[in-house]
Amino acid sequence: MGHALWPLALIVLSNCVYNITAKSTPAQANAFASLTATYLTAAALSFAALLAGRGGGVPAAFGQLNWTAPVLGLAAVGLEAGYLFLYRAGWQVNTGPLVANLCLAVALIFLGRLLFGEALTLRQLAGIAVCLAGLVLVSC
């Protein structure tokens, strides 16, 4: 069970650090300069981890990639910029990510069904209704 929980813990911890840091980014700082510094740091750390890992080497590792890597990069920039601008628009750290993630969860239920044929159960539909009710309560 621990092998399944550590990624969840990493996501929660990283998201906490991420949102606190995004909220703390100076409003006068250029958002895209901040993102450039962020991604240079991420690239350096990712490359160091790649070099430290086992496998067929750097060229082989990059040879296994497809269209998903650059599209994930585009999505990551959109996500990062979205959060910076969300906080600059006045959202609080205790509600902005919650509202965004509730909307995301609802969207992913439908996208999972549409793109991957995942089940859409009555229980999930009830969960969507509860999320939407919570969204109204949190954001009003």
Structural overview:
- The protein has helices at 2-24, 31-52, 58-63, 68-88, 96-116, 122-139.
- The protein starts with a helix and ends with a helix.
- It is mainly α and 140 residues long.
- The protein is globular.
- Helix 5 packs antiparallel against helix 6 (122-139).
- It is 79% helix and 0% strand.
- It contains six helices and no strands.
Give the % helix: over 70%
Total E-strand runs: 0
Please work out how many helical segments DSSP would assign. Answer: 6
Derived from helix and strand composition plus strand pairing, the structural class reads mainly alpha
The biggest sheet, with number of strands, parallel, antiparallel or mixed sense and barrel status, is: none
Order of helices and strands: HHHHHH
Mean pLDDT over the residues: 91
Query: What overall form do the CA principal axes indicate?
Result: globular
Low-confidence stretches: none
Q: Report the sheet-strand fraction.
A: under 5%
Radius of gyration: 18 Å
Measured between the Cα atoms of the first and last residue, the distance is 38 Å
Question: SSE layout and pairings?
Answer:
Blueprint: H1 2-24, H2 31-52, H3 58-63, H4 68-88, H5 96-116, H6 122-139
Briefly say what this structure is.
With 140 residues, the chain is an all-alpha fold.
Features of the shown structure:
140 residues; globular; mainly alpha
